[in-house]
Amino acid sequence: MILVFGKTGQVARELARACPEAVFLGRAEADLCDPAGCAAHIRALRPSAVINAAAYTAVDRAEAEEDLAQVVNGAAPGAMARACAELDVPFLHVSTDYVFDGSGVRPWAPGDAVHPVNAYGRSKLAGERAIAQAGGRWAVLRTSWVFSAHGANFVKTMLRLSESRDALSVVADQIGGPTPARGIAQALVQMA
Ligand SMILES: NC(=O)c1ccc[n+]([C@@H]2O[C@H](COP(=O)([O-])OP(=O)(O)OC[C@H]3O[C@@H](n4cnc5c(N)ncnc54)[C@H](OP(=O)(O)O)[C@@H]3O)[C@@H](O)[C@H]2O)c1
Q1: 3-class DSSP assignment, residue 30
Q2: Could you name the CATH architecture of 2-191?
Q3: What is the pLDDT of residues 120-155, one digit of tens each?
Q4: Which atom of ligand 1 lies closest to the CA of 97?
């Protein structure tokens, strides 16, 4: 049985399509503000793999809530990874290009030096490091610009604005890889 943390997010909803037989824990069942509680679910359910699709994703708000972001994005995945390592259960986690600083002109490679420049990026990097320190079997997928039919994302914003405007002004100095949540979910299930 695959255990998924997250139920309502873009990636979690696509995981539910890709793997309906998985067990999904939403905020009501497993609040990532309680890392020990999340780990306890893993020990109680003893799944064959764990996927963490939940995260504090409010990039701008994280500047004012860095402590909360650190717990949800750092301590909680760390506690999940330690419980998985104890049970020898593979742990799969989703991270972000915000662990990098945005400099340079070529696509990031996994081994590039990390250097987050905002609170969200620092919190996600804390999660990556806590997972690596847990040992066990784990993988972190860094993605960017996630879009899907659900939730708020760049593609849906552009589609909505295109219905009411003839021209759009959009920042021209950001380069990213728009990534379908469905593709991330399929990759996670295959890896699990
Ligand atoms: N969206 C992007 O463009 C993007 C880019 C790069 C990386 N990522 C990463 O990809 C992963 C999935 O992102 P997404 O776009 O699917 O995110 P999303 O749509 O914003 O969903 C986030 C999910 O996390 C849950 N969550 C937040 N705080 C929680 C808490 N304290 N306890 C339990 N659940 C909590 C939310 O639940 P509620 O509905 O209850 O709030 C929601 O289900 C995340 O790790 C994110 O950092 C996303």
Answers
A1: coil
A2: 3-Layer(aba) Sandwich (3.40)
A3: 999 999 999 999 999 999 999 999 999 999 988 989
A4: 6
